Amino acid sequence: MKDALFGGVNAAVLTAMTPNLAPDPDRMAAHAKWLLANGCNGLGILGTTGEANSFGLHERKAILEGLIARGVPAAAMMPGTGCASLSDTVELTLHARAQGCRGVLLLPPFYYKGPSDDGLFAYFSEVVQRVGGGIALYLYHFPQQSAVPFSLSLLGQLLQAYPGTIKGVKDSSGDYANMQAMVREFARDGFEVYSGSDEFLQAILAEGGAGCITAASNANSHWGGIVYAKRTGPEADAAQATLTATRRAATSVPLIPGLREVIARSTGDDGWRTIRPPHLKLTAPQAEAVWAAWQAAGALPLPGLSPARAAE
């Protein structure tokens, strides 16, 4: 897809924290800059991997502002702003727009289960009307986590009602047929489909999708960048195989603490293991297992990342 606002590889960025569980913008900004220098075209901050729903409204604003103040380009970031509360969703989206972000990622209102498509359409209509334009809205399809899916019918309704504002979707369902259907149905109208699963990057690009927004990109973005640049051929195929292997390594243990473990060991920075409950740090056997799996995938050491560089 040409001219996609976030076309390419986007990391669902881990949120760094201090020992008292406060956001750590210095550590997070350094990681964000490394990602942009090592295969990432953009950054999905404050999504599932970033533990957005473990942070309050003021903390989420401060994280975005802190990254921008430390030189992470606002235009490269797609903050997660979808909340169960309509007013919070609107407030965070307006804040992201005011900071210079080009797009935001919206979870559906996830507390009440089983809403109708009509109810979801009414919710997103309110968001669009209250925000008033000036920022692209991307929908977050992750039914395993939110328990509220986006049907093709609902997407069609929203696109017809708000063309150019409802700009795309991140599909973290792991259902490639669903991603494929979204591309085939809506990409001709400029709708950007992003895979939330690394193993589908090469395939979704070939289909006409825009790229990926993935957790494992925190540590495999180098290979994602190769796939996005090359698309086909031996180098792209080998890089895609590494993406698939690293995704499987990342999901061999609880995903978020597992990625924190990989970054902590790669940088020598134990602070990356800090995580907010209800998530927990990995057990020692789990930590050894994910490190071994990442090594077996052929993805260590991480290109361009070293303890010395991480401290700069």
TrEMBL record:
InterPro entries cross-referenced by the UniProt entry: Aldolase_TIM, DapA-like
Gene3D superfamilies: Aldolase class I (3.20.20.70)
Lyase found in the keyword field: yes
Keywords: Lyase
SUPFAM superfamilies: Aldolase
Pfam families: DHDPS (PF00701)
Protein name: Dihydrodipicolinate synthase family protein
Origin organism lineage: Bacteria, Pseudomonadati, Pseudomonadota, Alphaproteobacteria, Acetobacterales
